[in-house]
Every structure is written in C-alpha cells, then in structure tokens.
Amino acid sequence: xxxxxxxxxxxxxxxxxxxxxxxxxxxxxxxxxxxxxxxxxxxxxxxxxxxxxxxxxxxxxxxxxxxxxxxxxxxxxxxxxxxxxxxxxxxxxxxxxxxxxxxxxxxxxxxxxxxxxxxxxxxxxxxxxxxxxxxxxxxxxxxxxxxxxxxxxxxxxxxxxxxxxxxxxxxxxxxxxxxxxxxxxxxxxxxxxxxxxxxxxxxxxxxxxxxxxxxxxxxxxxxxxxxxxxxxxxxxxxxxxxxxxxxxxxxxxxxxxxxxxxxxxxxxxxxxxxxxxxxxxxxxxxx
Length: 287
Hints:
alpha/beta; Hypothetical Protein, Haloacid Dehalogenase-like Hydrolase, Chain: A, domain 2; 2 domains; five-stranded parallel sheet; 33% helix
C-alpha cells in the first residue's frame, strides 16, 4: 500500500523544462493545477532546487505551496510566501573571498548569492547573463569588484559556471586544490545546456540535509515522503526518502539508483518534463 504523505520535487528538468512559454521559466498550467490539487488535499509539497527562493516564488504562490522549500542547494530553507526562514547557512567571509578570487582570476563566470539577491562582476557580463536572468527571473546586481565587495554580504552560495563538461573538470580541480572545506555540487538547466552550474555551499550543506530539515518541519517521516529528480545529484535527497521517482528525461544513472528502492516504492515516468511527465508520477503515488 502506498503511504506517501509528503512530496519533495526537484525543479529544473522535473516541473520546469526547456520550452520557453510552455514550461519555462514556470511549469505548464496543468502541472501547477496538479500541485495545487494535491496541496489542497493536505499533501505538503516542497520544491528542492539550487536556485534561490525568488526564482520559484511564482510557482509556490500559484500552486499554493504554503510550506517550507529547499533553496540554494540546501543553504536556505524558506517559505517564500511569508519569507519565514528555518535555516540560513552563511559562508565564512574569508573562504568566500578566496573562492571568488580564484575563479575571477581564472576567468570563470562567477556569481554569489544572498537570501534575496545575486551578484556578478560588471566586467564579466556576457551571453550567460541574460540566460541566467531568464532562469532566475531576476536580474543580477553588478559590482565593480566582486572579490573585495563580497565581505559586505552574508553569502549563502557561490556559483561558478562552467562552459561544458570539459570546463567543469577544470573548475572542479581548481576548487579541490584550494582545499577550503566548502561543499561543491553541480546542476544543469534544460534551457542552458551545455553550461554546468557549480553550487558551492557551507561545509556539509546539501539537498540531502535539506530533505531532513523539510521532514522535520512538515512533520512527515522521510519513509513517507516521495522525492522526484532528473539528475544523478538528486539521488542525495531521493535516497533519504521512502519513495523515489525519476523523469523519463533523467540520467540513466539516476534511473538505476531509483530502481534500487523497494517494489512499489519507485517509478520511472514514461513521459519527459516537456510532456508534463511529473503528472504521471504524482498520479501513480497520490491517487
């Protein structure tokens, strides 16, 4: 018997796709309707994303998801409807400055984030800037010197953006050699391929920790939560939950991992994000 009592959803590649005006930058209206329907039936639904809360605020308001959500890769647990913050993990200012200096010196397009804004260096502005504006649904704040001015802010996340898989290796190697103890994970976005988005957070902070925090706050045991993703990195929070699902467009590795869950506790959708495949998953677990 299926006993899903709470839901955690990755955003990009799960409810937001690459068809601008259809399911980007916001989900298709049918998906919003489904989320709203389930929420009104008493199912808490938390979005889990590397993006900041202002990038998913419209989804949350339209679907009525009046509960806490995992944002900034786990650095901020927040309910954007009333701006109530459960957790906010701030990077050490000196470590943040070191990371920013490393990437700026090596010409890596880099952003840093606070709870309510994100920042770039003026002379780094390029074609990535409008792409990310579309994804984040907010324009960046431009700084003359992102390294020196960073100490004025409470930074929740630093995002180096690699141009492709090969550049990702370069960016990751630089981070490892700096040996700050901070956490680096990676994300992608359907409309921005082949860009790879680095997610640098405080030590030990991840979507996995975010899922644990959500479980506490919605008062639903992890064993009764359904988690859905599309990239291998999403396994870090899906593995914590009793039920797991992957989109048809998910990585083959994630599909393999999801199927290690108990029978009737996993689902691979037959439809992609651009076919509103999340509805198929939600119907399977939440009839």
